[in-house]
Write a structure and sequence with these properties.
about 350 residues, 5-stranded parallel sheet, FAD/NAD(P)-binding domain, alpha/beta, 2 domains, 6 helices
């Protein structure tokens, strides 16, 4: 298998309709794990991904919380997962999913750019979510080089350093408090004069001697030395006064959007738009299973994503077996009825 994730086997899409047992949408850790288990079970499955396999891993500089691997680059872990999944023969098709619909008989249809269409009685949906960006200069340049959207993932890399957190909701305040166990200081930058987080979270954050808040302020630019973020260029929204805040760790928590906009049918979700499942990753729509960051849950980690995916594939396999058995029973009933008519 090639050493470059970009060389993972990819099947070009076309305008044909491809029939499968199972469609996996999204090739982050959850999708790659789902592909691995679908391949091991010898299911006729296809994995659809818009870009290179890996999802948010491709934006993660270093991973040090995956059991059994003390430290690995995000790109390298993504490559290993993709290679492992490919070993079991699941086709990886590069194509941007534009629409997922459900036909009258319960069959799912997935349309990708370029005209390709894929049909299957079951889907494992692992399309993940997207952290909302500040869209300021320096954000993309220093992503993975000080800029992060996950405190649990990256906080430990900033031990003893100055950390800035942008946001004012529950996530920003809660993750900011979490980051105090690592940083020498944690400064919250918020565009308003009061936080939107729950009172109990605010109280805990503000009571910590390592924390501080810069009120009524927005980030104009994330600055750095070309290799690492070094701070923020700030602007007071009331006075226009500009200032700088030193920080080698910049954590942005201004929202996270689950990737559900391509779904052309209703599926139960929580107030944030994340899809609700039971313990077997089943949703309110029969045959539609969900795993990873798009799922409503307490935490979103690589470990939880692959656990979700493992369960989802086995649940999908059982669902397909039940469909097959019901179809055989119905066929037998039709055959018996035909025989009875012939003997009358």
């Amino acid at each position: 298998m090639a050493n470059d994730i970009r060389e993972t086997r990819v099947v070009a899409n076309d305008e044909s309709i491809h029939e499968h047992e199972l469609i996996i949408v999204g090739a982050g850790p959850a999708g790659l794990c789902a592909a691995l288990y679908a391949g091991r079970s010898e299911m006729d499955a296809v994995l659809l991904e818009a870009g290179f396999p890996g999802g948010q891993l491709l934006l993660t500089e270093l991973v040090d919380d995956y059991p059994g691997i003390e430290e690995v680059g995000g790109m390298e872990l993504a490559r290993q997962m993709a290679d492992h999944a490919a070993k079991f023969g699941v086709d990886v098709t590069r194509g941007h999913v534009e629409r997922v619909s459900r036909e009258a008989d319960g069959t799912f249809r997935v349309e990708v750019d370029g005209g390709g269409q894929y049909r299957a009685p079951a889907i494992v949906y692992t399309a993940g979510g997207t952290p909302k960006k500040l869209d300021v200069p320096g954000e993309m340049e220093y992503m993975g080089k000080g800029v992060s959207y996950c405190a649990i993932c990256d906080g430990a890399f900033f031990k003893g350093e100055e950390i800035a957190v942008i946001g004012g909701g529950d996530s920003a305040v809660e993750e900011g408090e979490f980051l105090t166990r690592y940083g020498s200081s944690v400064t919250l930058v918020h565009r308003r004069d009061e936080l939107r987080a729950q009172a109990v979270l605010q109280k805990r954050f503000l009571a910590n001697p390592k924390t501080g808040v810069v009120w009524d302020t927005v980030v104009d630019r994330i600055v750095g030395d070309g290799k690492q973020a070094t701070g923020l260029a700030l602007r007071d929204v009331n006075t226009g006064e500009r200032s700088e805040l030193p920080a080698t760790g910049v954590f942005i928590f201004i929202g996270f959007t689950p990737n559900v906009n391509v779904l052309d049918f209703h599926v139960d979700h929580d107030p944030g738009g994340y899809i609700v499942t039971d313990r077997d990753m089943r949703t309110s729509v029969p045959g539609f299973f969900v795993a990873g960051d798009v799922r409503s849950q307490l935490v979103r980690q690589i470990t939880t994503a692959v656990g979700d995916a493992t369960t989802a594939v086995f649940a999908a396999e059982k669902y397909l077996q039940d469909l097959h058995e019901r179809a055989e029973t119905a066929e037998d009933a039709v055959t018996r009825a035909a025989r009875e008519r012939q003997t009358v």
